[in-house]
Amino acid sequence: MQLELREGIASKISIPTGHRDVLVFDTKQAGFYLRKHASGRLMYGVKYSVNGKARRVDVWDVVKGNLATARKEAADVRAKARLGIDVLADRQAAIAARARTRSVLQAATEYLEARKGNVRPSYYTEMQRHLVGGKRANGKAWKPPTWKQLHSRDIASIKRGDIVTILDNVATKCGPREADKAKVALSGLYAWMIDDKAWCEVHPLVGIRSRSTNDRRERTLTAAELREVWQALEAINGDFAKIVRLLMLSGCRRDEIGQLAWSEVLENGSAGSEGARIELPGSRTKNHLAHVVPLAPLALQQMPGKLERRAFVFGRRAAHGYSGYSKSKKELDAAIAANRKAKGIADPMPAWCLHDLRRTFATMMRELRFADTHLVELMLNHISGTRGGVAGVYDRSERLEERKEALTKWADWIAANVASRVNN
Predict the structure, then answer these.
(1) Dihedral of the CA atoms 377, 382, 388, 392 (nearest 10)?
(2) Pairing state of beta strands 291-294 and 42-50?
(3) Where does residue 298 rank: exposed (0-12), middle (13-18), buried (19+ CB within 10 A)?
């Protein structure tokens, strides 16, 4: 296909059914082309011949304003090729030489140092766990990092087959979701090495499929299951029980509560008083937007007493909040199973995770008509849906009083449900 390439033309180019990509050659500059992938990625490239050998190389990412520069560089590449100079081959050789001077472990260590403080702590920990390993927040060592087998090898020596083999092993031993998390961590490292350091030119993870067949989670708990969880927490007690109840009552994410600092809690007097709330800074939220969570009396009751010289609400160590979710969740599941057995219920409670409480919160808030969709999104600190379109641009109200009212109604409903006064 041939067209005069212009800014924004990619949106008008369609990919034929069954094809992975399409090339559109520029009528203004010979050999210069736009490549559009089915994934949506766009690249400018150049086709040329040097010393009788034909070459076609994707070189420039398509970004607004770089068309003229890419077209000019393509002309320079072809001009030098006629003189027997392969500019791109020389560039790739230089990159490969730089890659041979660094091992994957060295590159990963530098990458983590560069990213520290620029991503959420939980995401940084996940990257560290897969790339280099280290210690957990509680001081215990993780199992060997996913990519340990690659640590001693040069960046340039890593092939797609090496990565696929490791991902398949992780998917078999630890599950497909864990394999996908490992893939995301390594993909971030390669993107940094390509864009920030020019240590390599090819991203070997491109085209490697996700191991999870269905990444969408749809589990919500019923009223009866919420009651079971709340009642089983009485056997667990301690910080974990308080955290789970606050997750249920607030709709917050796990680490927003588990890593809660006392500086983020404004009690403003006695329990249930006007203005009691959590104020999360943007550095602690997934979308980097500050978030206010009004606290109903029942939610405020879950807050432990303040400890001398302790910055965090939950957990035992001074340097961070709560850790040990895996062990505590197993204890909770065991308590639920014991309660079911005592009641003569043979079937186990269907598998669930803590994040399902957030989805349940959003679903039941609407079903019980405690909040409309826009208000639920405010309480979840989401910017998708109604907050992501034109309405979200112009409607900047926070509706804090309505949020507090809805959360109070929800807390009262939870209390009534636990006391078996709710019609299931």
Answers:
(1) 60
(2) unpaired
(3) buried
- The C-alpha angle with vertex 8 and arms to 4 and 12, in degrees rounded to 5, equals 80
**Tens digit of each residue's pLDDT (9 = 90 or more) over 65-76:** 889 999 998 898
Residue 230 has pLDDT above 70, yes or no: yes
Question: Which of 208, 196, 198, 203 minimizes the C-alpha distance to 170?
Answer: 208
Q: Is the pTM of this model over 0.85?
A: no
Q: What is the DSSP letter of 144?
A: P
CB 80 within 8 A of CB 67: no
Domain shared by 276 and 413, yes or no? yes
- Asked if the model's pLDDT at residue 369 lies above 90, the reply is yes
Residue 211 lies in a domain: no
Backbone angles phi, psi at 60, to 5 degrees: -115, 130
Residue 285: count other Cβ atoms within 10 Å of its Cβ. Answer: 17
Cα separation, 179 vs 168, in Å, equals: 7
Residue 265: what are its φ and ψ, rounded to 5°? -110, 120
Question: What pLDDT is recorded for position 354?
Answer: 93
Helical axes 121-131 vs 176-192, angle rounded to 10°: 90
Q: Is residue 92 part of a domain?
A: no
Q: Which of 35, 50, 85 is the last residue of a domain?
A: 85
Half-sphere exposure of 77 (CA within 13 A, CB side): 28
Residue 139 belongs to what domain range?
Answer: 100-197
Of the given ranges (94-108, 250-264, 307-321, 351-365), which has the lowest mean pLDDT?
Answer: 94-108
Same domain, 377 and 252: yes
Q: Positive or negative, the Cα torsion across 380, 383, 386, 387?
A: positive
CATH number for the domain harbouring residue 314:
1.10.443.10
The answer on 399 and 255 residing in a single domain is yes
Do residues 275 and 343 both lie within one domain? yes
pLDDT digit string, tens, across residues 282-325: 888 888 889 999 999 999 999 887 766 678 999 877 678 888 88
Same domain flag for 38 and 105: no
* Residues 252 and 374 grouped into a single domain: yes
Answer yes or no: is 159 within a domain. yes
Quick: pLDDT tens for 32-42.
999 888 777 78
Same-domain check for residues 294 and 412: yes
CA distances to 31, 73, 85, 91, 93 from 51, rounded to whole Å, are 16, 20, 9, 17, 17
Residue 231 lies in a domain: yes
pLDDT at res. 2:
87
Provide the domain count of the chain: 3
Q: Which residues contact 106 (CB under 8 A, 6 or more apart)?
A: none
- Same domain (yes/no): 136, 240: no
